[in-house]
Amino acid sequence: MNVNADSLCFWLTLRILATPGLADRIRTETAPHVHVTQPANVLGLAEPPRLKLSLAGLKAECPLLKSCYFEALRLDAAPWSIKHVVKDFVVTEDEKHAPRGGGGGGGAPKSFALHKGEYVHIPHDLHQSDPAYFESPELFKPDRFLVRGQDPDGKPNADMGTIRPYGGGVSLCKGKLFAEGEVLAFVAGILALWEFEPAGANGWQIPGHVKASGVSLPKTNVRVRIRRRKLPSST
Ligand code: HEM
To answer: Which positions in this protein are listed as binding heme (predicted)?
Structure first.
């Protein structure tokens, strides 16, 4: 809540702002679910703006925002899962999804025997940055996780695909849904209330990562100029 999800709010906001035109596309998509009003001043004292969000709407009706959220998880979260093997089993590479076969050589898919009592360590960022699964994995692509659903009007859905930044199995992250709500609400709310521009002459710069427990921390500060967006008056 205040170690991983809040850091992801930073990365997602920054990556949206650094992609030309994307902040406005997301403001348009989220507008029906994010209501900001400016109450009139009382006795000359400025009132703070009011923000009302529909979390259900952000989760179900905003595929572009959700696709960007998955993309920020893919790029900026490097969590680990550690599992204790309780019975012997064999994992075999999937030919279709691991076309390099044999761990990069183009040979037959490899198999790995795992034995009861051993531990398995899964560093999720290896998969999340694998070009066999993600074209130009170093790039932030807002629509990478958009898929065309059954919807007759062709409206896309956002699907997490093969990434598992919240782990899996019995120790699957218990805050997965809370974290998703926190990130979507904060980022939609921040974009609805504020305008940002980079403070330096070099435009938007994405800092490098400092590895942390789940979501990475930025290596350097990001300096921005922030101003209130012009808000509709509630009176
Ligand atoms: C972007 C944010 C977050 C990420 C990337 C994340 C990631 C993870 C991962 C990878 C695991 C281990 C899963 C496994 O063993 O395979 C985990 C476990 C856990 N997470 Fe999160 N998490 C996030 C946010 C949260 C939040 C907000 C909460 C609580 C409100 C939370 C509570 C937990 C708990 C309790 C576990 C241990 C579950 C168990 O062992 O049964 N997480 N998380």
So the answer is: 173
CA–CA distances in Å: residue 209 to residues 37, 44, 54, 75, 159:
37, 46, 32, 10, 25
- Determine the atom of ligand 1 nearest the C-alpha atom of 1: 27
Residue 234 forms part of a structural domain: no
Going from the Cα of 3 to the center of ligand 1, the distance in angstroms, rounded, reads 10
Specify binding-site residues for heme.
173
Which domain covers residue 68, as residue numbers?
5-79+134-228
Q: How far is the CA of 1 from the centre of ligand 1 (A)?
A: 9
| Contacts of residue 200, Cβ cutoff 8 Å, sequence gap at least 6 | 223
**Cα-to-centroid distance, 117 and ligand 1 (Å):** 24
